Amino acid sequence: MKRKLGENDEPVPTANVETPSAKMTTTFADLGLDSRLLQATASQGWQTPTLVQSKAIPLAIDGRDILAKAKTGSGKTAAYILPILQAILKRKQASSDSHTAALILVPTNELVNQVTKVLESLTSFCSREIKVSKLSDKLSDAAQRAVLSDSPDIVVATPARAWHNIKNSALSLEQVTHLVLDEADLVLSYGYDEDLQSVASSLPKGLQTTLMSATLTPEVDTLKGLFCRNPTILDLAEPEDDEGGVSQYVVKCGEDEKFLLIYCMVKLELVKGKAIIFVSDVDRCYRLKLFFEQFGIRSCLLNSELPVNCRVHAVEEFNRGVYNIIIASDENEVIGDEKDQTDLGDEDTIDNGHGGNTETPEAHSKNTATVQSSKRRKSSRRDKNYGVSRGIDFKNVAVVINFDLPLSSRSYLHRIGRTARAGQTGMALSFVIPKDKFRKHMPTSIETAENDEKVLARIIKQQAKRGHEVKPYSFDMKAVEAFRYRMNDALRAVTKVAIREARLRELKQELLKSESLKRHFEENPLEVRHLRHDVELRTTRSQPHLKHVPDYLLPKEGKKGITPKEVGFVPFKKVLDGKGRRAKVFKSKGRRIGGRKNDPLRSFKARSKNK
Ligand SMILES: Nc1ncnc2c1ncn2[C@@H]1O[C@H](COP(=O)(O)OP(=O)(O)OP(=O)(O)O)[C@@H](O)[C@H]1O
């Protein structure tokens, strides 16, 4: 009988729980992978499997259902892809029969594209044997049917897309042997409950399921009950001294001071390297971009209004080092987080922007519903399957700036997970509005900041449980004061009308850069600059003098007088003491495997560009 989402699931079988203490396998070859897959991992420059890969791959090859919890950026994608490829290659040795053998479900369109790309690179030495297809709501039903009639071995889709095609009999799950739910802690929060139930009821018996998640929440438990048969639980919280790739800082400031500080930080290069700046909504994206434009600072945007092609293209270019700053609106963070969440005991309540200290649970959920419904109303034009803080593999991000604090510690965890990926280091800096400074500068005020201090308290608690500290980032506000006049000048130019126009202009520009035009520009590279996503929107009045920083504005010690140098600098690589995660990933038996040259994760072209 079909189980309902939310029904009580069996308790996690402790005997089945694997911890990271067990001996790690050191090479991909030790995992028993096909030589074509070994070639593919080598061509990615991966020297050794990450922890989750070395634990999950042998179990999956052994046919076990797996529920793996591993931190963001730890290589979960390849951990579930490689065993699937291995199984398909093995089967194809005996029979060349083609059918869909694996279904990979992810919560957003961005992730559909990203996972498909990882699949394409990992099948680059067996692309004739394994066909991969993605389902997208940008394709007509007929086009999707055509894609599926080719019997791809692996299909990647959101649960809604998958169910749509199953329902239309375009996608047959009859011979599916592998199912993956990636970002399992988030998939329900995108409202896929019914789709997942329907998909579950169409699955053949005995198929092997893998659930991948950055956190273990009640939602993950629900999905486990729905899809898994007594899975092996891999709880791969990294050992304490192994984590801490992200140095976390917080700065308490006034609402307009966020703009002042970000201007100083970026213009004076107090923060070096590539940055993702998270803001609360689409308007805020444009406000900050137009504000930056006043000072000649280029940035590109990611928000749910932009076409998915353009978003994917912008992330690819950011990863290639074409842009240094992405301003991303994190609109979907509120969905699904209306109730308390527990993440291995971490309390993670989402706030709604209305509640006070005395809020009752009923009032809380009512208020949350109001915020959600207003967000949903506003977002009718937007892609509801959009998500930036979830799973997107931004490369070599030096700093994540929470310009607007997220509404929950869970969102915070996913946001900061965009930096310090695959063993790198990075920094997260969050702006927090203290209660007494809330609503003191209406043009730059946002509703949700009312609860910043409460959310911060939860973040600190959550991070403390993980053995991490969120430290204050001290600015010398007196030294920054000299820039206030310029900040006000720039802010005044960013009017509501300018924002509205910028939004329309950007949308038009981005629609023009659709896939077909992109191909045209690829054939005509001289025109490629039109494809850039960080072009100026120029809907504000022009103030060319703001683009330069005259020396008289700086304190006499120079920019170092603004903030102590040890927090202003973002280290790109941790000093290795032989104990850290990098050491574990890249070292074997006391011997370092591979050098800087062979490890693409250590080639920081972007950094030298920024200097
Ligand atoms: N064995 C490896 N060695 C080095 N780098 C790796 C290895 N496996 C994966 N990577 C790289 O690590 C990065 C993060 O991988 P991936 O996106 O799979 O992480 P994740 O755990 O799924 O993160 P998230 O939870 O945010 O989705 C990618 O850039 C990937 O290319």
Structure in words:
By secondary structure, the protein is of the alpha/beta class. The protein folds into 2 domains: 20-235, P-loop containing nucleotide triphosphate hydrolases (Rossmann fold); 245-335 and 376-530, Rossmann fold (3-Layer(aba) Sandwich). The strands form 4 sheets. An 8-stranded parallel sheet has the order 1-8-2-7-6-3-5-4, sandwiched between helices. The radius of gyration is 24 Å and the shape is globular. The termini are far apart.
Briefly, what is this?
Helix content is 37%, strand content 13%.
Give the % helix.
25-40%
Unique ligands: adenosine-5'-triphosphate
Distance between the termini: 61 Å
Instruction: Tell me the domain tally.
Output: 2
Low-pLDDT residue intervals, each spanning 5 or more residues: 1-23, 334-380, 565-611
- What radius of gyration results from the CA coordinates? 24 Å
Q: Could you say what the CATH architecture of the largest domain is?
A: 3-Layer(aba) Sandwich
Continuous helix count: 22
Structural class of the helices, strands and pairings?
alpha/beta
Q: What fraction strand?
A: 5-15%
Largest sheet: 8 strands, parallel
CATH class of the largest domain: Alpha Beta
The CATH superfamily title of the largest domain: P-loop containing nucleotide triphosphate hydrolases
CATH topology group of the largest domain: Rossmann fold
Order of neighbouring strands in the sheet with most strands: 1-8-2-7-6-3-5-4
